[in-house]
Amino acid sequence: MPRPRRHIFAAILPSVLCLVLLSASAGQALELSQPIRCDYGVGCFVQNYVDVDPSPDAADFTCGALTYDGHKGTDFRIPWADYRKGVEVLAAAPGAVLRVRDSVEDRDARGHEEEVRPYGLGNAVIIEHEDGYQTVYAHMKQGSVRVKEGDRVERGQVLGLVGLSGLTVFPHLHFGVTRDGHAVCPFLGRQADLPALCGTPPDPLWGPKVRIGYIPTGLIRATFLDARPEFPAVLREPEKTTLRADSSAIVFAVAVFGTRAGDRVEMRILDPLGRVVSRADSPIEKTQAQRLIYIGKRLEDPKKPWLAGTYQGEYRLLRGGKTVVRASSKVEVR
């Protein structure tokens, strides 16, 4: 399937890309650089932020929903294809390596939670900095860690690769910051368990060259399939550029993050003549960190194959009547 003109993580309208210019104040003891080698918003995005609501509820630093109760880090998510190639984890600040683990198997923890729970962060590196700060780099790829306990590391030094170890179902770097044992939100520059913290004026720990946009909602993947998709397995499957004319079904599937209750989804599949094969227009009833939706049609008669040619899938996510995510994909039926 030909790739859309924009990368999957870049298919977000400017109206919903709320850029937060993040630069550390002169008084901060710790200044952080980006802890993963990726083009933010194109090759990676933040799936979950630190939970800054000390109650049983959860809120990210903007008072948004991109977190869950008790989450103590920032999750930089990458595409499965990039995970297979290898994405480097970088030291966000100079310091000394305090602890290392590199023996946990990479696998989807779904269905294995109790077995994996003792190694929840998976393969990880913990670096100690001045003034009581520590940074944590977790869920790294088994066998990829390049440092050992006691090593002195410099800013930007490669620590290993993003992985799928520990309690996770998708490849990402869990980046945590603590000070004197308390989780710190790097976007606010303050201890995460303080009351009424979200939405307060930020004093971020990020350095002046770091610009990490707060993306409240975005596209993970849009693809064609020949069968009903299963989530999250659909995210791992290689791109399909063609389908057989006798395929049992033509299915268009879209995964997004940060959907909200009250959003509306519009989808359709067009055949080579521009006719609608399948469509959907439905509301979203609850806020979700990630959501998969698909439409499609079964082949009614094996003796009457699909019309050969290019099929087009179109997707729109609307919020308050405005499009916040738009995606399209094509597949050639032969």
Total domain modules: 2
Q: Which parts are unreliable, with pLDDT below 50 for 5 consecutive residues or more?
A: 1-27
What is the H-and-E element order?
Answer: EEHEEHEEEEEEEEHEEEEEEE
CATH superfamily of the largest domain: Glucose Permease (Domain IIA)
| CATH topology tier name of the largest domain | Glucose Permease (Domain IIA)
Number of strand segments: 19
Report the radius of gyration as a whole number of Å.
Answer: 21 Å
Q: Oligomeric status of the shown chains?
A: single chain
Global outline: globular
Mean pLDDT: 90
Produce a short descriptive summary.
The protein is mainly beta.
Give a structural overview.
The chain folds into two domains: 18-191, Glucose Permease (Domain IIA); 218-333, Immunoglobulin-like (Sandwich). The chain is globular and about 70 Å long. The protein is 4% helix and 37% strand. With 334 residues, it is mostly beta strands.
